[in-house]
Amino acid sequence: MNQNQGKKKITVYDTTLRDGAQGEGIHFSTQDKLSYVKRIEEMGSLYVEAGWPGANPRDEEFFQQVQKLTPSKVRIAAFGSTCKVNESPEQSDILLKLLASGAETITIFGKSWDLHVRDVLRATLEENLRLIRESVSFLVNQGREVFFDAEHYFDGFKENPDYALKCIAAALDAGAVMAILCDTNGGSLPEEIAQGVRAVMQEFKPQELGIHVHNDSGLAVANSLVAVEAGVTQIQGTWNGFGERCGNANLSTLIPLLQLKGEYSVVSDSALSKITSFSRFVAELSNATFDEKQPYVGRSAFAHKAGMHVDAILKNQRTFEHMDPAGVGNERRILISDQAGKANILERLRRFEPTMLKEDPLVEKAMFEIKAMEHSGFQFEAAEGSLDLLLLQIIGKFSPPFEVLDYHVWSEPFRGELDSVAVVKVKVGSESVHIASEGNGPVNALDTALRQALVSFFPILGKSELVNYKVRVLDGSLGTEAIVRVIVDTRVGREVWGTIGVSTNILKASAQALLDAINWTIWKFEIE
């Protein structure tokens, strides 16, 4: 059954590749953008604002290359501005390059706040209206679908509502398919957004109207929601909320919010179930750290830690979950910590013993052992690989696939890039392997040596990689005698898990975490 039948349709205009790329630390190469366009097909029919032709060589190259693709659902939009003050559209390098991009949809922005017209453009209010009117008309006459971004609309509407509305009128009268109301500074409150949208709806009664909101007050999603409730039919935003300053409206949150909590149809149910994986893809593509606390798509979104909460949710998920995690492609996680009760432990153990009961003495044994280890410095929330190894040992289902007979690590800081050497001796069955390896630092050298010694026995180690290494001093007052916690993250394909080591010796803690990582990789992919 189609859950979207009878709901009001909201279109999505994705500006991750343009607005999102303006975020600090975010970068997309031409190949990244092409990969993005191919992958976003799974999100269904939407607009993708891919860049500003002429702004830089990368965007120029992208619009040349993207014409070789044949996306069936995605409509590529080019972004730019109106022509310049005292310039005709026919002579505008900006507009001509927009046309040359080959994009069938062109979005141009123009000023709708009189302060910007006076202090930034240094033009008259009438000249700004001419720029909007003639630029839109020129592009429309060239057969393009034109959207008009009313930049700073909400600030302009608050200070000079008549002029802000005249800017919208200029674009619509010139043939723009849609006006997009922009909270460019991200400082408007929800009621101010609602008032600004209602004014446009009453004045022009448009069939289509867009909203483009920045997150400088932490309200971008909320402001987009009230805009839709006031009549907007298109949401603009970026995946994971990427963007300049505090970012843009987060599509990863906004799409499921509208579709699951409101009477709106945004994407197909199939696309909605892929939002979590797509959000992670965007983060990886941009080389940005994924925010695990994001609503809907973060690993923490459906993570439960308190024992009473876990006990309740296992009886009825509605007690502490506002929706089924599978609806957005996410999953429930039962966290294990010193706050865990038997329900937490049992849920985790049932992954290996599905018929285990709460009264089983191994459940209580596991609970007390985990709490004792966390008291000594372990933290299993971020080290689920080590946690699962521990539980397997407690129920007698794990036997180490290899034995470390000996290891030594040397480090010479002035030696060069490969400044460390590790020598390891391991035993697999009746066979022993003795190997030395160089590395960039002692931990890298040890990790490389262990993998080289074991990969012929366990080929999966050739496909796994260490992707993160974190060290925390638990009590700095003890100086160099302090207890150190090391967590390493390992990846095979798209699956990532953490393992942990704790010691007063940072190399010993690192070795413990690395050995758990290797043991869990082998058990999961070679033994399980």
Q: What's a concise summary of this model?
A:
This protein is an alpha/beta fold and 528 residues long. It has helices at residues 30-39, 57-66, 93-100, 114-121, 125-141, 153-159, 161-173, 190-204, 220-229, 251-261, 269-272, 275-285, 307-315, 342-349, 361-375, 384-394, 442-454, 506-527, and strands at 8-9, 11-14, 46-51, 74-81, 105-111, 145-151, 178-183, 209-213, 234-237, 264-265, 303-304, 333-334, 403-411, 420-428, 431-439, 464-473, 484-492, 495-503.
Can you characterise this structure?
Helix 15 (361-375) packs across helix 16 (384-394). The protein folds into 4 domains: 9-286, Aldolase class I (TIM Barrel, Alpha-Beta Barrel); 303-372, no CATH class; 376-396 and 465-528, 2-Layer Sandwich (Double Stranded RNA Binding Domain); 402-457. It has helices at 30-39, 57-66, 93-100, 114-121, 125-141, 153-159, 161-173, 190-204, 220-229, 251-261, 269-272, 275-285, 307-315, 342-349, 361-375, 384-394, 442-454, 506-527, and strands at residues 8-9, 11-14, 46-51, 74-81, 105-111, 145-151, 178-183, 209-213, 234-237, 264-265, 303-304, 333-334, 403-411, 420-428, 431-439, 464-473, 484-492, 495-503. The strands form 5 sheets. It has an 8-stranded parallel barrel with strand order 2-3-4-5-6-7-8-9, surrounded by 8 helices. The chain has 528 residues and is α/β, with parallel strands linked by helices. GO terms for molecular function: (R)-citramalate synthase activity; 2-isopropylmalate synthase activity. InterPro entries: 2-isopropylmalate_synth_dimer, AIPM/Hcit_synth_CS, Aldolase_TIM, Citramal_synthase, LeuA/HCS_post-cat, LeuA_allosteric_dom_sf, PYR_CT. One of its GO terms (biological process) is isoleucine biosynthetic process. Residues 10-273 form the Pyruvate carboxyltransferase domain. This is Citramalate synthase.
